């Protein structure tokens, strides 16, 4: 995927703040510091458009990034960060649930998991939530450069088993450092967008 244009658009908290141009949206969920911002930057080939931070819990809204006037990446607040208050966690949960239940332009959810570790309880809950709402999901296993190549398959298998992953959901091993998995993930995203278009044309 050649990126000709990418920019940050808005930080939204409630539906009336979401963009209204009906471009397809690809949302990213994952625990704090799992590498969502770094993934976005690698996907759009920009170093610091999505601001990365060593401080977990920094993203507190739905951050919209518009790419090639074709698609939005929507970055969710990270979950599972202990220093975020209980009230904030509840607010994040309500904000994300509202988005997932009501957002028609959402075409694909990326569930971002650190490939070095088994999914957390929060990861399992989020995956179950996505399946409950019938949202197309891709599991992205980040930081693949941090584990030996000989152990990639083992780690991916462990992640799929812990999530009880649907065999139909694509799994992409990804590294923001090396770019591994970028082309594969763009293929998954474009397939999700084109599949939606085909479904709409068939129903007309």
Distinctive features:
disordered C terminus; globular; alpha/beta; Rossmann fold; 204 residues; single chain
Question: What does this 3D model show about the protein?
Answer:
By secondary structure, the protein is α/β, with parallel strands linked by helices. The chain has one domain (6-203): P-loop containing nucleotide triphosphate hydrolases (Rossmann fold, 3-Layer(aba) Sandwich), CATH 3.40.50.300. It has five helices and seven strands; from the N terminus they run ββαββαβαβαβα. It has a seven-stranded mixed β-sheet with strand order 1-3-4-2-5-6-7, sandwiched between helices. Strand 5, helix 3 and strand 6 (137-142) form a beta-alpha-beta unit. The protein is globular. Residues 53-58 and 199-204 have low confidence and may be disordered.
Spatial gap, N to C terminus: 30 Å
Order of helices and strands: EEHEEHEHEHEH
CATH C-level class: Alpha Beta
Structural class: alpha/beta
Helical proportion, percent range: 25-40%
The CATH level-2 architecture is identified as: 3-Layer(aba) Sandwich
- How would you write the strand order of the largest sheet? 1-3-4-2-5-6-7
């Amino acid at each position: 995927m050649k990126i000709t244009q990418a920019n940050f658009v808005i930080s939204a908290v409630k539906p009336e703040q979401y963009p209204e141009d009906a471009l397809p949206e690809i949302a990213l969920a994952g625990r704090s510091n799992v590498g969502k911002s770094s993934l976005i930057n690698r996907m759009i080939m920009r170093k610091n458009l999505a601001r990365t931070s060593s401080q977990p819990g920094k993203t507190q809204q739905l951050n919209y990034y518009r790419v090639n006037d074709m698609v939005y990446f929507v970055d969710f607040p990270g979950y599972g960060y202990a220093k975020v208050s209980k009230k904030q966690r509840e607010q994040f949960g309500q904000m994300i649930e509202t988005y997932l239940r009501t957002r028609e332009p959402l075409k694909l959810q990326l569930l971002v998991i650190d490939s070095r570790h088994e999914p957390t309880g929060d990861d399992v809950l989020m995956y179950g939530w996505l399946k409950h709402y019938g949202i197309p999901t891709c599991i992205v296993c980040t930081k693949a450069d941090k584990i030996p190549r000989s152990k990639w398959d083992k780690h991916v298998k462990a992640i799929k088993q812990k999530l009880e992953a649907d065999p139909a959901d694509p799994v992409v091993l990804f590294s923001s450092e090396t770019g591994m998995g970028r082309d594969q993930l763009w293929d998954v995203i474009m397939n999700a967008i084109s599949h939606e278009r085909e479904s709409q044309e068939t129903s007309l």
